Amino acid sequence: MTVSEHAEKNPEHATFAHVSRGYYPTIVALFTAVLLISNICATKGVAFFAGEELSVGPLQILPIITDGGFFLFPMAYILGDVLSEVYGFKATRRAIYLGFGAMILASACFWLLLELPSADFYVNQASLEAVVGVYPRLLLAGLAGYLVGQLLNSLVMVTIKERTKEKHLWARLIGSTVVGEFADTLIFCAIAAGAIGISTWGDFFNYLIVGFLWKTLVEVLVMPITYRAIAYVKKHEPTYVIAS
């Protein structure tokens, strides 16, 4: 029924568009929220096992140095996997672009917020700058790593699914995670290394390898959660039909 036909049949009611009954809008909203929140959390440096020292050759294992977004950012890849597995690459690519746009908008708003003149009674400007300050090089690193990593993650997962159909979900999850996380970590480290004080090749490779292995390990550990999330959405998504 068109808008005009609805208005003719229901002249006493206002006209509104229909909301999709699928899970896609909800997952995209969660996906975007995770990106925004994890990027703010990432402004805090975190060290696990700070009192321990463990190295394998030139590679430092302990302490584990990461940022405050480590516990939340992997959920972006989980949600990306759900989108890719259930809705395909085009729909996932749209969600990735929306998340990318939201991150740019947030950065622009934070920059404008910091530039606005402070009231005489406001004494938290320095604290605000420390949390939401926009550092161009780190912002570029985060945006570039996210965009390439998520697109590759989705592309690999969908490509493997074209061959395996509904079988071997574990292979799609692990394969896409390895490719996406490595690209994300490599691009971020390559751009951000100088900005955070890394000046030698040894330190760079340590930062890259430990970061990649850590994030990949987290993805593997939460795979049972990803399995359950994908199964739930497939079962309750009205438009998902398993090919025979």
Automatic annotation (TrEMBL):
Alphabetic keyword roster: Cell membrane, Membrane, Transmembrane, Transmembrane helix, Transport
Top-level lineage group? Bacteria
Membrane-topology descriptor: Multi-pass membrane protein
Report the subcellular localization.
Cell membrane
Q: Which InterPro entries match?
A: YhhQ (IPR003744)
Transmembrane stretches in the record are 27-49, 61-83, 95-114, 134-158, 170-198, 204-227
Instruction: Outline what the protein does.
Output: Involved in the import of queuosine (Q) precursors, required for Q precursor salvage.
Task: Report the family membership.
Answer: Belongs to the vitamin uptake transporter (VUT/ECF) (TC 2.A.88) family. Q precursor transporter subfamily.
Q: What is this protein called?
A: Probable queuosine precursor transporter
What is the protein's species of origin? Rhodococcus oryzae
| Organism lineage string | Bacteria, Bacillati, Actinomycetota, Actinomycetes, Mycobacteriales
